[in-house]
User: Which sequence fits this backbone?
């Protein structure tokens, strides 16, 4: 059982939150987490690389000179891959690198990632996070009060909030995501997680179903 302090915007402790990481994931599989992270990173690859074959480069297809009698090595066209400006022998072609693990495996991997961060005491809880209007300066003050201003942070909220998103989007090394968009990669990537208590409640409810 882990007991997390709950802070307010000023960094003052206002309560305690008890959670057993095993409620999210009874065990943590490093192999599954690795597979999930590699999949998400692979799916970010553009796959738009392209080089030309000898049929695609510019140049005549005529034989450069006769086969015998010149004293030179025999040669074909100027587009040959052994000549400057010629085509590539094994030309690279656009490729779709994406693939998917099963939905069940990815859901379990996300819960394992969250359980791992909770077990390692890398989650900071805040009682609420709402803004009347977008104001990045307010969020900078909150991060400084919580001593998260010099580290990479994932801010997790229960649902999409436009004011929260606009407040945080311009901050370096800070990302905001609703609970429904969490995955193993974006949970494990930052150094710290900043979560509202309602967001953690939503994660627990979802894990219990």
Assistant:
């Amino acid at each position: 059982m882990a007991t997390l302090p709950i802070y307010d915007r000023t960094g003052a402790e206002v309560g305690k939150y008890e959670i057993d990481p095993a409620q999210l994931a009874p065990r943590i599989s490093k192999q599954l987490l690795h597979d999930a992270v590699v999949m998400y990173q692979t799916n970010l690859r553009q796959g738009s690389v392209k080089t030309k074959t000898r049929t695609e480069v510019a140049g005549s297809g005529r034989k450069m000179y006769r086969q015998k009698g010149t004293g030179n090595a025999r040669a074909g066209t100027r587009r040959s891959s052994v000549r400057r400006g010629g085509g590539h022998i094994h030309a690279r072609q656009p490729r779709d690198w994406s693939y998917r693990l099963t939905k069940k495996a990815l859901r379990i991997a996300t819960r394992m990632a969250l359980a791992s961060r909770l077990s390692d005491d890398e989650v900071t809880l805040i009682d609420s996070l709402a803004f009347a209007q977008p104001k990045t300066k307010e969020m900078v003050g909150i991060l400084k009060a919580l001593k998260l201003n010099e580290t990479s942070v994932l801010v997790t909220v229960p649902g999409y909030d436009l004011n929260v998103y606009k407040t945080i989007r311009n901050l370096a090394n800070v990302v905001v995501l609703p609970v429904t968009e969490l995955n193993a990669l974006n949970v494990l990537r930052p150094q710290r997680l900043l979560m509202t208590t309602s967001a953690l409640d939503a994660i627990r409810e979802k894990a219990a179903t």
Q: What stands out?
A: Residues 110 and 184 are 4 Å apart (CA to CA).
